Every structure is written in structure tokens, then in C-alpha cells.
């Protein structure tokens, strides 16, 4: 029962992490910059993500623009995109594999060892998915921090961490943690002993006792 509860907890955490990775990938707030001109009415908040850039006016109006060409983007941004998309796809595969190996499912009930191995394999896929998202978000955050502290970067073009980065870090951690819990349900090797042979019973005497 404890192993089944650990499996269920691991799957729930990994699933929540996978959903968080999707949300983080779609959000435009990977980095943000706020500045105000001479008049407070012209204050703006600029956001840049993996797919689009947005500007929010002080009135609350938001305007977004999708990046025009893939070839014009920086190589690091393209690599971040690829890692996040790979994390989403791996999480999807890991979800189906882990569901097959869950004890509460009726698939592969005839072979419990293979069933538990499927759950472990799904956990490994979730861990790889979380690591891919963690590398992507950390790499992007490192670029943002380096540009922020670069003295040659103009003050009005310095960006800070956006909310999508924090969501991505939390989601990657949940995916790795959930995958680790799924891996903890690995079947233990049981030592097999040869069957014990019973001792032959003494043959009962068929002779009759005479007085």
C-alpha cells in the first residue's frame, strides 16, 4: 500500500510539473523591463518570451507581437525553445508510460514486475523532462542576469527575471521530484530458493499382527 501511495504521489507531482512547463513555455513573461518617460502616462512594462514580445501601457492595454522569422532569432533563444518543447513531449510520453505502470490501473496485471518497471521507466522520462526544462530556464535566466549587470547595456533596456522563469523552475523541480518518487517503486529482487523436498513417509506395514 505504501508503494502504491508513493507511486500516486509521484505521478501527481510529475503531472503538475508537466502542466507548469507548458504554462511557462506559453507565457510571454520570460523577461520584463519597466521604465517611465517624462510623463507617468507613458509608463510601459515590456515583456519578452519565447514566442512573442508584449508591451503593457499604464492604462492596462496590452499589445503583443509574435516574432516574425525563426531565422532572425538568436541561437540561444532557439535552443531554449527546443529544450522546452522537448520537455513537454517527454513529459507527455512519460505520463502515458507511468499510467501503464500504476498499481491502480488494470493494465499488465498478469506481470507485476513488468508493470512496476513501466512505472520506473515513466519516472525516468519525467526526470529527463524536468532536467531539460531546468537547463532551458536556467540558461535563459543566466543570459538575462549577465545582460543586466553588463555596464554597456543601456539602463532603459535592462531586463529582469519574468514570472515565467519562476514558474518554469518550480515546474521542473516538481517533474524531477515526481519522477524520483516513481523510480522509488522499483521492484526488489527476491532471492529464490530451490523448493524443499519432502521426506518420504515410512511405508505402513501390510502384515497383520498375530497374537
From TrEMBL:
<keyword id="KW-1133">Transmembrane helix</keyword>
<dbReference type="GO" id="GO:0005886">
    <property type="term" value="C:plasma membrane"/>
</dbReference>
<keyword id="KW-0796">Tight junction</keyword>
<keyword id="KW-0812">Transmembrane</keyword>
<dbReference type="InterPro" id="IPR006187">
    <property type="entry name" value="Claudin"/>
</dbReference>
<comment type="similarity">
    <text>Belongs to the claudin family.</text>
</comment>
<keyword id="KW-1003">Cell membrane</keyword>
<feature type="transmembrane region" description="Helical">
    <location>
        <begin position="7"/>
        <end position="27"/>
    </location>
</feature>
<dbReference type="GO" id="GO:0005198">
    <property type="term" value="F:structural molecule activity"/>
</dbReference>
<dbReference type="InterPro" id="IPR017974">
    <property type="entry name" value="Claudin_CS"/>
</dbReference>
<comment type="function">
    <text>Claudins function as major constituents of the tight junction complexes that regulate the permeability of epithelia.</text>
</comment>
<feature type="transmembrane region" description="Helical">
    <location>
        <begin position="79"/>
        <end position="99"/>
    </location>
</feature>
<feature type="transmembrane region" description="Helical">
    <location>
        <begin position="161"/>
        <end position="184"/>
    </location>
</feature>
<dbReference type="Pfam" id="PF00822">
    <property type="entry name" value="PMP22_Claudin"/>
</dbReference>
<keyword id="KW-0472">Membrane</keyword>
<feature type="transmembrane region" description="Helical">
    <location>
        <begin position="119"/>
        <end position="141"/>
    </location>
</feature>
<dbReference type="InterPro" id="IPR003548">
    <property type="entry name" value="Claudin1"/>
</dbReference>
<protein>
    <recommendedName>
        <fullName>Claudin</fullName>
    </recommendedName>
</protein>
<dbReference type="GO" id="GO:0005923">
    <property type="term" value="C:bicellular tight junction"/>
</dbReference>
<keyword id="KW-0965">Cell junction</keyword>
<dbReference type="InterPro" id="IPR004031">
    <property type="entry name" value="PMP22/EMP/MP20/Claudin"/>
</dbReference>
